[in-house]
Amino acid sequence: MIKIMALDVDGTITDQNRIICPEAITSIKKGIESGLQISLISGNVIPVMYGLKTFLGINAPVFGENGGIMYYNGSIEKFFDKTKPLEFLEYISSRSLATPYFTNQWRETSAAFSMDPGNEAIVSKEAEKWNLEIVNSKFTWHIMNPGQNKGYAVEILKKMFNANWDEILVVGDSDNDNAMFTLPVKKACPDNATDSLKSISDYVSPESYGYEIGDVMAKFNII
Ligand SMILES: O=C(O)COP(=O)(O)O
Fold first, then answer.
1. Where is the secretion signal located (predicted)?
2. Of 12, 15, 128, 198, which one has the fewest beta carbons inside 10 Å?
3. Taking the domain 83-143, which CATH number applies?
4. Average pLDDT over residues 11-32
């Protein structure tokens, strides 16, 4: 039986323009009413996650910056530091390889940027030299510390709610969701997910951009 459902945000409960899907909100509400713990794990910043948790009535902790920071029970917990990601961002920006993203003013554990697709290989190589990780959410590139990823957040949820791996269901659509899909949890994705996530999912919904949430819940006998 599924006890915890961890959802990515952008592209999973929203469309390509980040507009939240009303059907996803309804499904989340039904899931919570049926006794499920629902968490959101995003690359986005913690003030946004705090807003989503508050206004959608999310009951479990929410995570920002790909698992680097958590909001729960009125407090924020930071698991990583932003010093090195910011130094790296300064370095690649000074070489005109990247443009810092305005949301960095609210980031506490990582840094975000945009870049020309032609720069991806060189920036990845540089990040490796700096012992940092870069990942793309399809919306933003993120610079993170080693071990900072959405899988780290799922492990925190597992401990917090004393769940077995097979009692956790993750749903995501893009590369920054890979780390939670490599855990021995149940995995589902919308039809708009990357081929790599689809290939390792237990269930690929025919629905996309938030419409899959209700379908996935029905598939796993949640609602
Ligand atoms: O990169 C972002 O800000 C959003 O990322 P998400 O797909 O993890 O929600």
1. none
2. 128
3. 3.90.1070.10
4. 98
